[in-house]
Amino acid sequence: MKDHAALAEAFNKDEQRVDWHDETLWWVRQKRDRASHQIPDWEELREAASQIKHNVLSDLGNYLEQFEKQAIGNGITVHWAADAKEHNDIVHSILKRHGITQMVKSKSMLTEECHLNHFLEEQGINVVDSDLGELIVQLAKEPPSHIVLPCIHKKKEEIGDIFHEHLGSEKGESDPQILTETARVHLRNTFLTRRAALTGVNFAVAETGEFVVCTNEGNADMGAHLSDVHIASMGIEKLIPKRKHLSVFLRLLTRSATGQPITTYSSHFKRPRPGQEMHIILVDNGRSVQLGREDFRNSLKCIRCGACMNTCPVYRRSGGHSYHTAVAGPIGSILAPNLDMKQYADLPFASTLCGSCTNVCPVKIDIHDQLYKWRQVIVKEGYGDKKKAAAMQAMAYTLSSPKVYRIAGKAGRLVMKYAPFAVNNGLNPWYKQRDMPEPPKESFGEWYAKNRS
Amino acid sequence: MRVGLFIPCYVDQFYPNAAIATLELLEKLGVEVSYPARQTCCGQPMANSGYEHLTEGCNELFVDNFAEYDYIVSPSGSCALHIKEHLHTHNDEQKALGIRKKIYELTEFLTDILKVEKLDAAFPHRVGLHQSCHGQRGLKLAQMTELTAAPFSKPVALLNMVKGVEIVPLDRPDECCGFGGTFCVAEEAVSAKMGKDRVADHIQNGAEYITAADLSCLMHMEGILRRLKSRVKVIHIAEILNGVKETVA
C-alpha cells in the first residue's frame, strides 16, 4: 500500500492542479480569517469551547448516561456500538426489521469511518448520499477528500462528466447552477421514496437528550422529515452538557469551516413525530482508547470543522486522498494512528509541524504537538521507517561527540566542495528540485578559534 | 551579563557568516559573549523524526556547554524552540529547566532583553521577510494571521531600524516554506512544492533578498532559488542588522 509521501508525489505530477487545489482551499482559509476576525472575542470563544469539551471528556461516562436517559424519555431508541462492525450491524438490523432496502443518508463522517455504505451494499441495501458533495464522490466511486467539502478535489467540468454519465445531464455541461439543479431533481425523487434516513450528529445535548445536525443544504431535514425511520449515528465524544453551550459551538463551527456566520440549517431533533421511529447509535470505535491516552485525549474535542485542513500547507498540496483515511489532514493524522498504528504510521510525519492547524482549531486542540508526540510513539512501538532508524543512530552518534562532529563536518564540507556529484545526485531527494548550499572554506567554529581565542 | 552563543550545527557548517554577524552584533551592543567550543546540535533532527530517545547525548552536551551562562542566544528560532520545549538531563534536571528559561532566539533577545531601539546599519534593498513557523508560532516573534489579536513583529521592528530597508508585502505572510527537517527529503514532492510557492510569493512581490531569523528555511529557499537560477538571494537577519561586511567565502 502506498504511503502519504508516495500518494502526495503522484498528486504533484500535475503542478497546475496542485496550484488550483491549494488556491481553492486557501480561499476558504481566507474566508475563515475574515469571519473570525470580525468577532472581537474570538480567542475567548475558542477557549470557552475548549473548556466545555474538556469538562465533557473528563466526565464522559456520566454525560452519556444522562443523555441516554433523557433521549429514552423523549421516545428515542438508544443503541451502543463498541466498534464499526457493531454500528453497521445495528443499522442493518433496524432496516431489516422494517423490510427496507433503500436508504437516504446525509453527511456523516462516522459512517465513512465505519465504511457503512460498502457494508450495506453487500447486504443488498441501496444507499444514496444526499449531501451534494457526497453524492458526487459516491457517483464517482471515491471516498470524500475533505470532511466539510467532500468533492473539493473535483473541478466543475469533471462533475459535469459524472452527472452526464449517472444523472443524464447534457454532455459538456459544467454550469454549477444547472448541475446543482440536476442533483436536486434526482434527490427529490430519492427523498420522496425512501422510508429510512440516516443522519450524522454535530452536537448531542446531555441535559435534554436532543441532538443537533448542521447542514447547508437542508438535506438532513428533508431525509429525516420524510422518513418512517430516522437513524442518527454519533461518536460518543459529540456530547455537550447543556443546550446553552450550543451558543458557543454554533458560533465557532461554520466560521471556522467555511467563513459563514452559521450553517443554513441547525436542526434540533428531540423526539420522533407520531408514527416515526427515531434511533441514536452511540459509537465508541476506538474513542475510549484515545480517551485513555493522556497525550492524545483532547483530539476528541474535534467538532469536524475542517479548518486545520484548509490551513495546512501540506494538505493543500497533497490532497485529501493522500491521507488514505476517512478524516484527512492534520486532525486525521492524530486520530488515525489510534485506530491502527501500523496502517497509519506515516500520517504524523506528513507535516512540517508549522503549527497553523493548532492556531485555527476552534476547540484549541494542540494538533502539531500531538503530531510530534505520535512520531515518538510510532517509533518506540516499532512502526517507524526502518531505513531512517540507521541514519538517526549515525546522526545521534556524530552529534553526541564534539570531536566526531568536527571531523565529520570537515569531511562533509570537503566532499561537497571537491566532489559535488557525491551529494548532488539523483539519489539525494533534496537535489531533485533544490541545489545544495555552497560550502564555505571554514566553519564558524574554525573561524572563532582563529579570530576570538 | 554573560551570554553563551549557540550556533546550530548546519549554521556552523554552511553559514558561518550568519554566526559571525550574530557574534559581532552582540559584541557591538556591549554584551559579553562567548562561544563554547564543544557544542554541536540541539537534537531536533532526531526528535522531530520520532527519535527523541536518541537525543540524550546532545542534551547532556548542551547542558554542559551552556548551564553557566546568564542567557543563551541563537540565530535560529527553530533550534531555540526545540531547547525551550524539549531539553532534559539525567544528571541535574534543574539545570536543563534553567536553560529552557534563559535561551533566546536572536531577535527576541535584542527586543526583549537588550531592548534595542536603534542600530547602526544600512541595507538599501527590497527585502521579503520569511516568518519561520517555529520562530513565529512557537516563540511568538510576530503575531500570527490565524489569530484575532493585535499585530506586532519583533523582526520587522528591528529591520525598520536599518537604513534603506524596504520590506515587501507578501500575499501569504506566514505560510511554511516546507523544509520541516527530515520532511524535506521524506516528503520531497510536497516539501519542494511548498518551497517553490513560498519563493514565488517573494519574487512576485519584488524582493531582492529573502531574510529570516531561521537559516533552515533560508537554506531550503536558497536551494530552490539557485535551481531556478534566480537573482534573488537569501540573507540571515543578523547580517542585515549587523550591517553586511565580513564574509567567509
Task: Explain the layout of strands and helices.
The complex is a heterodimer of chains A (453) and B (249).
Chain A lengths: L3 H8 L3 H23 L4 H17 L1 H14 L3 E5 L2 H14 L4 E4 L3 H5 L2 H7 L3 E4 L2 H8 L16 H12 L8 H18 L2 E4 L3 E3 L4 E6 L3 H8 L2 E7 L3 E2 L5 H12 L7 E5 L7 E7 L3 H6 L14 H5 L1 H6 L10 H11 L16 H5 L6 H14 L5 H14 L2 H17 L10 H5 L10 H8 L2
Parallel strand pairs in A: 1-10, 2-3, 2-4, 4-7, 5-8, 7-10
Antiparallel strand pairs in A: 5-6, 6-9
Chain B lengths: L1 E4 L3 H6 L1 H13 L3 E3 L9 H4 L8 H11 L4 E4 L2 H10 L6 H10 E3 H8 L12 E4 L3 H6 L15 H6 L6 E2 L15 H4 L1 H17 L4 E4 L2 H13 L5 E4 H6 L7
Helix pairs in contact in B: 5-6, 11-12
Can you tell me about this structure?
The complex is a heterodimer of chains A (453) and B (249). With 453 residues, chain A is α/β, with parallel strands linked by helices. Chain A has 22 helices and 10 strands. In chain A, 49% of the residues are buried. In chain A, β5 (203-205) and β6 form a beta hairpin. Chain A folds into 3 domains: 1-37 and 299-384, no CATH class; 39-285, NagB/RpiA/CoA transferase-like (Rossmann fold); 388-451, no CATH class. Chain A has helices spanning 4-11, 15-37, 42-58, 60-73, 84-97, 109-113, 116-122, 132-139, 156-167, 176-193, 219-226, 246-257, 287-292, 307-311, 313-318, 329-339, 356-360, 367-380, 386-399, 402-418, 429-433, 444-451; strands spanning 77-81, 102-105, 126-129, 196-199, 203-205, 210-215, 229-235, 239-240, 265-269, 277-283. Chain A has a 6-stranded parallel β-sheet with strand order 1-10-7-4-2-3, sandwiched between helices. Chain A has a 4-stranded mixed β-sheet with strand order 8-5-6-9. Chain A is globular and about 90 Å long. Chain B has 2 domains: 2-113; 126-242, Rossmann fold (3-Layer(aba) Sandwich). In chain B, 46% of the residues lie in helices and 11% in strands. Chain B contains 13 helices and 8 strands. Chain B has helices spanning 9-14, 16-28, 44-47, 56-66, 77-86, 93-102, 106-113, 133-138, 154-159, 183-186, 188-204, 215-227, 237-242, and strands at 2-5, 32-34, 71-74, 103-105, 126-129, 166-167, 209-212, 233-236. In chain B, β7, α12 (215-227) and β8 form a beta-alpha-beta unit. In chain B, α5 (77-86) runs antiparallel to α6 (93-102) and α11 (188-204) packs across α12. Chain B starts with a strand and ends in a 7-residue tail after the last helix. The mean pLDDT of chain B is 95. Classes of the chains: A alpha/beta (453), B alpha/beta (249). At the A-B interface, α1, α2, α15, α17 and α18 of A face α1, α2, α3, α4 and α8 of B.
